[in-house]
Amino acid sequence: MQTSKRDLPLKIDLDRLPASDHPPGPAPDLDMIWIPGGTFTMGSNEHYPEEAPAHRVTVDGFWIDRYQVTNTRFRKFVRETGYVTVAERTPTIEEYPGAKSEDLVAGSVVFTPPPGPVPLVDHYAWWRWQPEADWRHPEGPGSSIHGRDKHPVVHLAWDDVCVYAEWAGKSIPTEAEWEFAARGGHDGRSYAWGDELAPNGRMLANYWQGEFPWQNLELDGFARTAPVGSFPPNDFGLFDCIGNVWEWTADWYAGHGEVPRSCCSAAELNPNGARRDQSIDPNAPGAPTPRKVLKGGSFACAENYCKRYRPAARMNHPIDTGTNHIGFRCIVRP
Q1: Are 324 and 110 in contact (CB under 8 A)?
Q2: Cα angle at 269 between 318 and 291, to 5 degrees?
Q3: Strands, DSSP E only, in the chain?
Q4: pLDDT one-digit tens code per residue, 76-106
Q5: Residue 233 pLDDT > 60, yes or no?
Q6: Contact 41, 54 (CB under 8 A)
Q7: 10, 35, 136, 273: which has the fewest Cβ within 10 Å?
């Protein structure tokens, strides 16, 4: 296979960068990397409608976590603060008017593969609400994070990641900041490493191989989450920007055609951006819940379903719920 000039790795040599692109001091955290600001093509016109239109965006420099936040780091936060996550709290009737009392139990959403092929039009065939599932019990009662210290923490709602970030003196990246960092300095590639998903058959991220949602061949070595850093970093030195777990971003979500581009200032940065009130899915049943943008894909993304293990890909998720395939990483803006 020939290697094009565009596929050659981009190495960041700080000594050759303009002074304005140098980090303004030491890293705030040992495992944070400086991302020089720049202009790039955000989104894609070649995949899912919500990624379009591709457009030029400029971001300022920032530090970003090298890894997704792990169980070890989140455990330290909980021990020091006594924080209780959304999944560990019992919902109230005030929060969910009209809900049955028996449904108001603490828990979260867990990926549960069916025993055989199912129609891919109904995600409830593989996702289920699991009482008592939370970050300590990723698959529900009887499961634990023993031996998963370096796995990304999961089952966190939007409020949880915000409180953690504040405690750590950090922030949650915008969609544009996240995508710029995930691309590793390469503009226009389909994947973080190039335009081929598995070059020479090599698995470069934790995603689903086989027929989703029932047949996981585990060619990458993992059925669900993997320890952070299990796959090669991108050319900025960031791990797991593709696959493993989806990552929360600070942007409110609006899908293709849901919000006029001229409706709000957020659209000047991202044509698919929205205000909080515009992020609510008008077709969602029950209490309306605002949605944030998730990026990066997860272990549950497959070639036959949800090919969103790409920097340009995006997904919406309600802010009041976590799952066992959503995590996050933080940034610090100078």
Answers
A1: yes
A2: 5
A3: 32-35, 38-42, 55-59, 62-65, 107-111, 127-131, 246-253, 273-274, 291-295, 315-318, 326-327, 331-332
A4: 999 999 999 999 999 887 777 777 777 789 9
A5: yes
A6: yes
A7: 10
Count of CB atoms within 10 A of residue 190's CB? 18
Query: What is the reported pTM?
Result: 0.88
Which amino acid is it at 190? S
Tokens of 322: 């976590």
pLDDT digits 0-9 by tens, 246-274: 999 999 998 654 443 333 333 333 445 67
Q: Which of 334, 329, 324, 302 shows the shortest CA–CA distance to 236? A: 329
- From the list 64, 68, 71, 75, the residue with the least C-alpha distance to 229 is 68
Structure tokens at 22: 């140098």
Question: From CA 93, how far away is CA 102, in angstroms rounded?
Answer: 11
CA 311 to chain CA centroid, nearest Å: 10
Peptide bond into 117 cis (omega under 30): no
**How many of the other CB atoms lie within 10 Å of CB of 20?**
10
- 3-class DSSP state of 168: helix
Q: Class of the 28-334 domain?
A: alpha beta
Burial of 163 (0-12, 13-18, 19+ CB in 10 A): middle
Contacts of 302 (CB under 8 A, 6+ apart): 207, 208, 209, 210, 211, 212, 213
pLDDT at 273: 61
Phi, psi of 331 (to 5 degrees): -130, 165
Helix axes 71-81, 158-168, angle to 10 degrees: 80
The domain locations on the chain are 28-334
Span between the terminal Cα atoms of the chain, in Å: 42
